[in-house]
Every structure is written in structure tokens, then in C-alpha cells.
Amino acid sequence: MIMLFRNRFLLLLALAALLAFLSLSLQFFHLIPMSAARNGASSKSRKRIMPDPVTEPPVTDPVYEALLYCNIPRVAERSMEGHAPHHFKLISVHVLIRHGDRYPLYAIPKTKRPEIDCTLMANRKPYHPKLEAFVNHMSKGSGSSFESPLNSMPLYPNHALCEMGELTQTGVVQHLQNGQLLGDIYLKKHKLLPSDWSPDQLYLETTGRSRTLQSGLALLYGFLPDFDWKKIYFRHQPSVLFCSGNCYCPVRNQYLEKEQRRQYLLRLKNSQLEQTYGEMAKIVNVPTKLLRAANPIDSMLCHFCHNVSFPCTSSGCFDMEHFKVIKMHQIEDEKERRKKRLYLGYSLLGAHPILNQTIDRMQRIAEGRKDEVFALYSAHDVTLSPVLSALGLSEARFPRFAARLIFELWQDREKPSEHSVRILYNGVDVTFHTFFCQDHHKRSSKPMCPLENLVRFVKRDMFATLDSSSTNYHDACHREGV
Ligand SMILES: *[C@@H]1O[C@H](CO)[C@@H](O)[C@H](O)[C@H]1NC(C)=O
Ligand SMILES: *[C@@H]1O[C@H](CO)[C@@H](O)[C@H](O)[C@H]1NC(C)=O
């Protein structure tokens, strides 16, 4: 009885902490748009200096970080997409997303899986006004809009007890919201697509998971409500790196192996972490190795994001302290990862094909072609993370649920042959933090980052970032000795 009481008390404490952080983060996010709006009114033409995307709280807080990761849908979101001086015209947009909130990929041994309902319901939170219309529209979708094997997948989540890895209602709402936000900016404000847009003006691609397909559809529905199914075609991407046709790269794999070795050694050094896994293994009565292999943080994050208490057995409960220790280790691991640069080596080679594909599309638009004006790649954390790192944005946070990375292409109306790019991560302009434009202001008085910088980086300079002898993908992938 006392045991039970104590557990409840601890749970309440944890919930109180969660609520405190929720309200803190709400304040944090409400304050910013207000001051941004105030500045914006008086200085519309002034060059915008964006705050650092990685402004940290004074000390790294694992609970705060976990809340950002959950990305619980909020009403007002601040975003800098679609901002440029007046004489620039937006001519193309490329969106790379991580799927929305999902059910865990792993189960914690010998515990009940969290009871989360993956059907979509208007009376459940979080809600989006387009939710019912989305379900209705999806039920009219036809297999001919999808490349095999996507055509055999459900178009929205629909299990009363979520399946492993299934997109949740939170995940759908996150991407309806993303899509609506991008539609307001790119379609309503910038008229990126004409009202009678043609099928070849969209390029849609997703990995073969239901959660990425459904996330892509939710974003697309928020972006283009009631789109014509006959104009939609989702391509299937077999590789999480989006490298199809160019995936063979032995040096990339060597970097990955070394990176995994680094990760392993760092874990061994963390005695608090080992002790925590030990305690948790005792609670579920399995060998520590087995518990660790079940990646309990993935499951615990689901409990955390859905405000469901952590699992218990007759020997005790997983608790907030366990959660904090593992989450904190993840954060420290990312810090070391940045320093050692093995992951950077992996990322530069892993992200090249998708960056190459993106600049190829941009260059064709810049030359005056009108197809593939809007591209959407629906992907995973293991897609976004290397792309961020390869661009030089390694300080950016690990991709949260429904994270979005956007490439905008702009044309200077006063000098129509000149094109510029902007890069935005979760609505924050990070263009001048990238490898290819971080020194731009020192060398140039132009307000925007030239497309050539990105092209030069992807075609050549990215290979020299680690190894000055390689100048192309093939050589960099096959050189001797990493
Ligand atoms: C979390 O769940 C508890 C009940 O289990 C509830 O009282 C509380 O309001 C919930 N918190 C949030 C943020 O939804
Ligand atoms: C880069 O893009 C070009 C043009 O589409 C293509 O021919 C080439 O195979 C691509 N290279 C890589 C390594 O992705």
C-alpha cells in the first residue's frame, strides 16, 4: 500500500514537472512571435538577423529537450518561411520532413505496451479543424496515385491499439499543421503554384513505411486541401538516405562503423547510464543486455509525449530519473559526435545524393523550366540528421517528430539571371549557418545566399570538407583509408 502510494506520489511529481515545462515552453514560444511582430512592423526592409537556432536554456535540461522532441502541436507557430526582400520572387520550394509522432518501434520486454489509440477522432486532442475532411478525402484515394508498394498501404492510421511504428493522431495533426502553414505562405502569399497547377509541378517521394506515406499525405492535404487525386503521384524511395541509384559507397560505411564504435565506447564510460540500465533490467527481470537492446528510451519517449505513466512490474516502475539519465546521455552523445567528426564524414557522403537531386531540380527551375516547383520528401530522423550535418548545421537539434527542412529558391526580379537560396529548419532561417553561406556577409553585400554557393558545395566542396584530395562523389566513396 505504501509502495503504491509512493509510486503515485512520484508520478504526480513527474506530471507536475511536465506541466511546469509545458507552460514554460508555451511562454517561450508565445513571447517570441510577439516581439518578432513588433520588430517586423518597423523594420520590414531591414536585413533580418535571425536568432541562433540552437539557443539553449542556461543548462541542458533533458526534460525540456524531450518536450521539444515531442513537438506537441501548439496554436501559433513562429516561422520564417517565405521571407525575402520585395524584389525577390519565390520560384521553387523543396521540403524534407520527418514523419510525425509515432508509436514505439520496440517493446520493453515483459511490460504491457502503452495503450495509445491510433484511430483519428475529432473529440481527441490534439485536434486540427481539417482532421475529418482529411479522413474523408483519404477514403477517396486510389492506388493509381502511388508507386508500388505504396499502393497497398493504409492512407491514414486506423488501429484502436497502435501497431509498432504507426503514426498517431498527434502525428497527423502535426503534418496537417505543417501543410497549412506552408500553404498559407507559399500558395496564398507567394502564389508558388497557379490555381490550375499540373501534376508535373509537384514531386512527391516517400519511404515505404505507412508513417512516412501518411505524414506526406497529411502535409499535402494541409497544403492543398481537397487536392485532385488524379494529379497526385507518390514515388517510393527504398533507401532512408534517398540515395537510390547511388547508394553504393564503401567509405560512407567505414565512417558509420567508426561512428558506432565511438558511440559504444562513450556508453561504456557512463557508469550512471550503465547503473540505470541495470536497475531497469531488474524491474523487468531480464538481462541488462536484452533491455538495452530493446532501446527503452524510444518507448519511454512515447509514454512521455503522450502523458502516459511509465511501465511498472511487481518489482517496481520505470521513472523520470531513469528517463532523464538516458535522455541526457543521448544529448552528450550528440555533443561528442560533433567533435569527433566521424558522423560528419558519414553524413557528407550519405546526404550527397539527395542534395545533388535537390540542386538538380533547382537548377532546372532557375533555367526556366516549370515542372517540379514543389518537392516533398517524406522521411526519417536518419534522413534529416545526415543532411543537417552535411550542410554544416550540426548544432541544430536532433530532428523532432514532424521536423521540416526547407530549401527555397528565389529569383531576383531586378536581375532575373540571379538566383538565391534560403534554408529553414523548423521555421528558423539557418541559411547563414551552413558551410556554403556562413561567410557570405563577410564577402558580399548581397542580402541573400547565391544558388551557386550551394551548387558549388554539393558538386565539389563538400568532398573536400574532410579530405582535400577528393572532388567528386565516386572518388570520395572509394578512397583508401579513412
Ligand atoms: C496528464 O494526465 C493527467 C492524468 O493522468 C492529467 O491530469 C493531466 O492534465 C495530463 N497532462 C497533460 C499535459 O495533458
Ligand atoms: C547527381 O545529379 C546528376 C544530374 O541529375 C546525376 O546525373 C548524377 O548521377 C547524380 N550523382 C549522384 C552521385 O547522385
Automatic annotation (TrEMBL):
CDD domains: HP_HAP_like. Its EC number is 3.1.3.2. It is an enzyme of class 3 (hydrolase). Keywords: Glycoprotein, Golgi apparatus, Hydrolase, Membrane, Signal-anchor, Transmembrane, Transmembrane helix. The keyword Hydrolase applies. Gene3D superfamilies: Phosphoglycerate mutase-like (3.40.50.1240). The keyword Chaperone does not apply. Interacts with B3GAT3; the interaction increases the 2-phosphoxylose phosphatase activity of PXYLP1 during completion of linkage region formation in a B3GAT3-mediated manner. This is 2-phosphoxylose phosphatase 1. The gene is PXYLP1.
